[in-house]
Amino acid sequence: MNILQNFIKNIADIDDVSSQKLVDLATIVNFKKNDVVVRAGDLQSNFYILRSGIMKSYYFDKNGKSHIRNFFTAMSTTGDIGALLTNKPAKLFYDCFTDCELYAINYKEFLDMVDKDHEFCKMFSKVLSKIVLIFESKIYDLSVLNATERYLKLRQELPDLEKLVPQYHIASYLNITPTQLSRIRKDIVLKNIS
């Protein structure tokens, strides 16, 4: 659980006692490649911290086509946080691209700690702030950056992703077609862009 304590310390500078309380709330769970961790329409009780592996969040449109909303790599939080905050069913599916090991933390128990422990409250505030900034950045990227710029940014942020995730999933995440992604990749090679 030292990995989890280091993760907690990187998020918020909380004391060792509070850090240990969060570690004590966590349970390690394992999922196999293609396992669904959170299913759209289900109420969930846990949020997760991905210890190892790669996950994705996605939804299906009315025509049954899936749309990738996010990729998750080691030491990132995952699960439908919006569903937990509103106590409503999850809007997205979360599943594993690879075998994954996660820390599962019961959200209600975590909220009880937030109410009782100021250090937890500080950490929760920082986590929510980071989530807002991530979504703000994604909205900005989709609004302002062209597809090539979004692809280059994704490669910079997650350099090994292309080795582990099919190209059509990356295209979906970038909100482009696989054909467009293929052209972008070809142009990058031809122009020697990195």
UniProtKB/TrEMBL annotation:
Residues 10-114 form the Cyclic nucleotide-binding domain. PROSITE patterns: CNMP_BINDING_3 (PS50042). InterPro entries: cNMP-bd_dom (IPR000595), cNMP-bd_dom_sf (IPR018490), Env_Response_Regulators (IPR050397), RmlC-like_jellyroll (IPR014710). Gene3D superfamilies: Jelly Rolls. This is Crp/Fnr family transcriptional regulator. It comes from Polaribacter marinivivus. The lineage of its organism: Bacteria, Pseudomonadati, Bacteroidota, Flavobacteriia, Flavobacteriales.
